[in-house]
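Ticket opened by: R.M.
Priority: normal
Category: complex prediction / small molecule

The reporter submitted a protein together with coenzyme A and asked that the result be attached to this ticket for the collaborator who will pick it up next week. Submitted input follows.
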Amino acid sequence: MAGLGPVAWPPAPIRTERLVLRESEARDRAAFIELFASQEVRTYLGGPRPRDELERAVPEVPGRRTGVFVVDLDGAMIGAITLDRRGAERPGHVRPDAGEAELGYMFLSEVWGCGYAAEACAAALDWFADVLPGEPVVLCTQAANDRSMRLAAKLGFAEVERFEEYGAEQWFGVWSSITPTG
Ligand SMILES: CC(C)(COP(=O)(O)OP(=O)(O)OC[C@H]1O[C@@H](n2cnc3c(N)ncnc32)[C@H](O)[C@@H]1OP(=O)(O)O)[C@@H](O)C(=O)NCCC(=O)NCCS
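Result attached by the on-call engineer:
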């Protein structure tokens, strides 16, 4: 997926009630590997990747590019949020020229159920609305991914369509800072 584009990056760390959204650092490497190696986290994302392969492949400072926020709780990484450009070759678009900003999120399973993902994603969407006012954000998630579906609804994403991809039903929704929902 292409990076977000010409926005000033990284922004100053974004503070929420309990969390900080910041650029990744070398000390986050183990948490990145855990996210990609975790059976639970990767259930609806193509499955876990072998830990030894990740240990070899993951760079010293993973995820250091425009649109990748590390979510930090009390000084430790608990998840990652991405805002990327959705590839034109993928199904699901809301603009004729494609390339929509797309939200992605992965949190370590031990912190699920605390509202951290909702708190962090809302802050990332606020940041996005500030830097690219009026631009929609899209989200694609497996319809069977109940937690992700609940989060999408809570954040104010509205269903656009559903389609089959990767052998599963995908839910495709859109969020806009200028069309508040719910
Ligand atoms: C999708 C994912 C981020 C959702 O995480 P989550 O912790 O369930 O999401 P939220 O932050 O919205 O937390 C919601 C839960 O916290 C609870 N909660 C507890 N304290 C809370 C608080 N202070 N504020 C808000 N909610 C709180 C809510 O009641 C809710 O509980 P429920 O799940 O029993 O309904 C997580 O499951 C994940 O990382 N999955 C793997 C990656 C993935 O599939 N990503 C999708 C691809 S885009």
